[in-house]
Amino acid sequence: ARFKVKKGDSIFLLSDGYPDQFGGPNGKKFMTRNVADMPRNIAHLTMIEQEKVIKKSIKRWMKNEEQVDYILICGTKFYALIVEVKRPKTSSTEPTPAIELYFPCSS
Q1: Which DSSP symbol is given to 10?
Q2: 29 contacts: CB under 8 Å, gap ≥ 6
Q3: Rounded to an integer, what distance in angstroms lies between the CA atom of residue 101 and that of residue 98?
Q4: Under 8 Å CB-to-CB from 35, ≥6 apart: which residues?
Q5: How many Cβ atoms from other residues are within 10 Å of residue 33's Cβ?
Q6: Which of 58, 59, 55, 54 is nearest to 39 (CA)?
Q7: What is the pLDDT along the chain (107 residues), one digit of tens a residue?
Q8: Rounded distance, CA 5 to CA 76, Å?
Q9: How would DSSP label each residue in 12-53?
Q10: DSSP readout, 40-103?
Q11: Contact (Cβ atoms closer than 8 angstroms) between residue 84 and residue 24
Q12: Phi and psi for 75 in degrees, rounded to 5?
């Protein structure tokens, strides 16, 4: 899959544990559609604030239900994007990437 990333975009990767978690008023699964809506609803927040909302949402959903699977969510926000074009120096059987992306982080 290919996608364009621009400054300010966020990407989230997650396990199936979050949407598969039981809870809510009827003890049903959280469901993928609810997880998919969350990044759009919290995109304006900082990553720290997003983490708090994500944790609070699943805890509120679970209430007294036991956790049924591992829950893993990894998110990153692109604050800067530098693209470097590299040309192959020698011919090789290994494919050489034409573009490498670097995402510098400030401490």
Answers
A1: E
A2: 19, 20, 21, 22
A3: 10
A4: 14, 18, 19
A5: 9
A6: 54
A7: 667 778 888 888 889 999 999 999 999 999 998 888 888 899 889 889 999 999 999 999 999 899 999 999 888 888 776 655 555 565 566 555 544 555 555 44
A8: 12
A9: EEE-THHHH-EETTTTEE--HHHHHHHHHHHTTS-HHHHHHH
A10: HHHTTS-HHHHHHHHHHHHHHHHTTPPP-S---EEEEE-S--EEEE---SS--SS---SEEEE-
A11: no
A12: -125, 150
The β-bridge partners of 75 are 12
Tokens of 3: 């996608």
Q: Is the entire prediction scored with pTM above 0.70? A: no
| Tokens describing residue 22 | 């039981």
Three-class SS state of 11: strand
Cα distance from N-terminal residue to C-terminal residue, the chain: 31
Q: Would you say how long the chain is, in residues?
A: 107
Which residue is associated with the tokens 């978690």?
Answer: 21
